[in-house]
Amino acid sequence: MENNDIKKIIAPSPMMTEDGKNELYLYSLKKMADRNAEVDRYSLTGLYGNVAFFYKANECLHTHLGKQYALIRMDIYRFKTINEFCGRTEGDKLLVYISDCFKKYEAEDAVAGHLRADIFALCTPYKTDQDLINIVHDIAQKIESFPLPCKILPAFGICKSEFGMDISLLIDYANLALQTVKGRVFSCYAFYDETLRQQLLYEKKIENEIIPALNNHDLEVYIQPKVNMLTKEIIGGEALLRWNHPQDGFLLPIQFIPVLEKSGYIVDVDKYVWEEVFHSLRQWIDKGYKVVPISLNVSRLHSYQTDFEQVLYGLAEKYNISRDLVQLELTESALTENTELVLKTMSNLQKNGFYLSMDDFGSGYSSMNMLKDEPIDEIKIDRVFLSDISTIKSRIIIKHMISMMTDLNINIIAEGIETLEQADFMLECGCYRAQGFLYYRPMPMSEFEKLLQLI
């Protein structure tokens, strides 16, 4: 039935009372629900399909007005791999088993649905949030106990109808909540609440405004100098970013970089920073300054860009910049993801003159393996280690870490030096290069240029 046909059914006469409108709407909704319930059931599990669930759930919401309702949506993390590893027959058995878990909660005022593939939903009344949590825990425990030779990780998103949404929005917002916990081992559910709503709105705002900000040059490149702790000489710098937002003021990286990483816009932002740095290096050289190498942060997402290497080669050629003046900083987590591709790309860049630095060394779990396999010129010791040098264990770890790097002929720089005690300890261990507030804070390009004039 087309939307216009539905409107004809439920359109009230001019003389109809408000109660009459509601009765006619409920009558029409029930007719549509019953009609779809007969023809739209998931063949494998027998639960209502997407369309039938929509109508039946809406009927519940409008029939039981005195009850609070919520929508629970469930998805299995990497269900396709279960089919591939265990076979489609076993995967189908799991889906039938899950449908039985949901059918347990069907009632005159509650509806379960199998929306598609491994996605299930339950529209149910509740009195407290704990009622909903209990349902989730019950279904999750049963699913996790299903006999399969691979781990099953269900994820649940919960959206309460108190937000005034119809069933389609409840489903969508429950899915947004679900995505925040999908794949996690120790947290299998999340509520769509005001906090999540504000977070999602903020993320969307950042995504919508980042391209105009790039075009308007609202993003400003800052440089934090690196120093030789013995001589206090500036030996380099790291390019960082600040957003001079026209309405919200000065935004620090922590306020927008994670959003850009998630959305993929970090690739555009990185290229913007790279262009600014290459351009500035050219200007400083032309002015006769003694320039120092500048580090560029490289997101893990660049390893998926087919033109990644060519962009850097092109910038070096465009501005006639020696590649040893540009250092590429990758986080440890970036080097552990898609390792083969990253290794190949980084090796190519290193062979063609770029200097490679591993940022946040020691913050992950694969540091030692990466030192053996990756083409690394330098490691930056994570500030977490330096924040606790008062303990004997921390001092021993740092001391031996630096000794090992020296034996491997890998350069070392201490990140986050903020106190004289930290600086003295690193010097005692044989690390002479540092970056931190004790020496310099991040500064605009123009201020860094003034420092270059003194070198």
Automatic annotation (TrEMBL):
Question: SUPFAM superfamilies annotated for this entry?
Answer: EAL domain-like (SSF141868), Nucleotide cyclase (SSF55073)
Looking up Gene3D superfamilies in the UniProt record yields: 3.30.70.270, EAL domain
InterPro entries noted in UniProt: Cyclic-di-GMP_PDE-like, EAL_dom, EAL_sf, GGDEF_dom, Nucleotide_cyclase, Rev_trsase/Diguanyl_cyclase
Q: Where is the GGDEF domain?
A: 67-194
Tell me the Pfam families matching this sequence: EAL, GGDEF
Among the GO molecular function terms of this UniProt record, one is: cyclic-guanylate-specific phosphodiesterase activity
**Domain spans labelled EAL:** 203-455
Q: Which PANTHER family match?
A: CYCLIC DI-GMP PHOSPHODIESTERASE PDEF (PTHR33121), SIGNALING PROTEIN YKOW (PTHR33121:SF70)
- Name assigned to this protein: EAL domain, c-di-GMP-specific phosphodiesterase class I (Or its enzymatically inactive variant)
Taxonomic source organism: [Clostridium] fimetarium
